[in-house]
Structure formats: C-alpha cells, structure tokens
Amino acid sequence: MKPQYLFILCLLIGCQKPKPVNQLVDKLPESKKEVIAEKDNFLKTDTISISDYGETSKDNYILAHLLDQKADKDSIVTAKYQLDFYQNKTKTTSSKITIEGVDKGSEWSAIYGLGTESAKSSPFIQISFGYPACGYNQSHYLYYFKNNETQLVYDWYTMSDSGWGSWVEFENPVKANAESFYCKTVSFEPDDNDENMGTVKHSDSMVFRLSGNRWKSQLLSAKDKTYFEKKMSFDDFHKQE
Q1: Is 203 left (phi over 0), alpha (psi -120 to 50) or beta?
Q2: Which of 104, 130, 161 is the last residue of a domain?
Q3: Which residues pair with 155 in a beta bridge?
Q4: Distance (Å, whole) CA 21 – CA 238
Q5: How do residues 64-92 score in pLDDT, each as one tens digit?
Q6: Same domain, yes or no: 219 and 208
Q7: Shared domain check, 122 and 106
Q8: pLDDT in tens, 13-44
Q9: DSSP code per residue over 160-188
Q10: Claim to verify: residue 141 and residue 239 sit in the same structural domain
Q11: Any domain includes 225
Q12: Same domain? 226 vs 140
C-alpha cells in the first residue's frame, strides 16, 4: 500500500468519536440481586388450643415456637419458647418464656379465666405445660389481655399424684371487671403413719391489683412459709373442693 493511503487511513481511525461511557456500561452484564426472605429460626411449633367449656376454639389459639433447648450435666432440659397469640385467626401479640425441667412428651393446654373451669368472657388465659401424668411437674403461666396487648401476670409450678401434691388456687373476683384478685399455694401431703390422713398447708398468699393497664403483685405472707396448717382425712379434703 502506498504511503499516502496509509496516512489517510490513520486519519480516519483517529478521527472516530469515542463511545460514551454509558454506552459501554450498557453492554456489561446486569448484576442480579437475590431477595432472600427472612425466615424464623424455630426448632418446632406447637399449636395450643384454648378450651372453652369443653370445646376447642377454632379462631383463638396460641402458637408455641421452640427457640432453643439445652440439657445441663444432670440432663435437666431447659427450653425457650416464643408464644404467638391469635384472636379471630389474626396474630395480636407475642411473649417469650423459659421453662426449666422439661420432660420428653410434655404437652400444652390453655383455658380462659382464673379457675379450673373455662370462662371465655375473662381477660385472663392460663397456659399449662408438662408431661400429662401424675407425679410430674407442670409449668403454668397466667396472661392478661387488653387492647391486643398481653402481660405475663404470674407463673408457677404444680405437682399432683393421686390426690396429693401442691398447686395454686385463685380466688375469682366477684365483679367481672374487678381490679384485684388473690391466690395462694396449697399443698396436701400424706401422713407417714396413716394413708387415709393428710396435712393441708397454705403458703405464699398474694394479691394482684390493676394499676393502669398492668397488674402488680404483692406478697401478703412470708415467702415459702406456711401460714395455715390442718390435718384432714383424704375424703374430707376432696369433699370441700
């Protein structure tokens, strides 16, 4: 090729306009962003049905999510749960609890009210957890609901075996919207010398008072100290229940 043609070709190449930066970028492959949905890290989930006069509520229930579970050197298991409360099939609030001494095969149950019979109009729910057999400890939690908010008012343990044991008794308030109620710990222990006789004891008398939207507790007797004691036959004790 002649030198003059080479010179003209170089001028043509050198005079071409550089491509804009954004035009170059447009040719690069687009980066893909993956949206990862956040998942709750629950080990398992149990559904707690709320008993309503012998029937199970279909719209109101509790989901108990197991968050963590560990055993110590003595094989005593401690579990952490998140309780999600549902009213009319809609989640309203949550609460976290820690349960010590969990037995394999333990089950949940729940009723409305402060007594042993369900009372749906009550703003209280009693939740129980434990192995469903005599001689095993049961964990109990009393919750109060108002305006889609919840408060863990009180928690305690019970154990009963063939009519003997210890538990907590609540005195139901006379008024539906009462601002106070009482409870005490009751135990009934068999006599060492007579299997038909036992000793009933009362301890840990407490009063709960409503202050604003929160319940506050006050111990009325010395903690873990018996303030009432009486010997009774097994039949007489259970007749008064």
Answers
A1: beta
A2: 161
A3: 141
A4: 90
A5: 999 999 999 999 999 999 999 999 999 99
A6: yes
A7: yes
A8: 444 444 433 333 333 333 333 333 345 789 99
A9: EETTEEEEEEEE--SSTT-SEEEEEEEEE
A10: no
A11: yes
A12: no
Answer yes or no: is 176 within a domain: yes
**Segment 124-179, tens digit of pLDDT:** 999 999 999 999 999 999 999 988 899 999 999 999 999 999 999 998 766 667 89
- Residue after which a domain boundary falls, among 123, 142, 161: 161
| Dist CA 108 CA 61 (whole Å) | 12
What letter represents residue 133's amino acid? A
> Which pLDDT score is estimated for 19?
41
pTM equals 0.80
Q: What are phi and psi of 7, to 5 degrees?
A: -65, -40
| Top-confidence residue, 48 or 15 | 48
Structural domain boundaries, residue 156:
40-161
Distances (CA, A) of 132 to 37, 107, 129, 162, 211: 38, 7, 9, 13, 36
Do 239 and 175 lie in one domain? The reply is: yes
Q: Kind of pairing, strands 214-219 and 180-190?
A: unpaired
* Residue located via tokens 């009462």: 178
- Identity of residue 192: D
Residue 34 in any domain: the answer is no
- In a shared domain, residues 132 and 95: yes
What is the H or E stretch that residue 230 is in? Answer: strand 226-233
Pair of tokens at residue 211: 């202050």
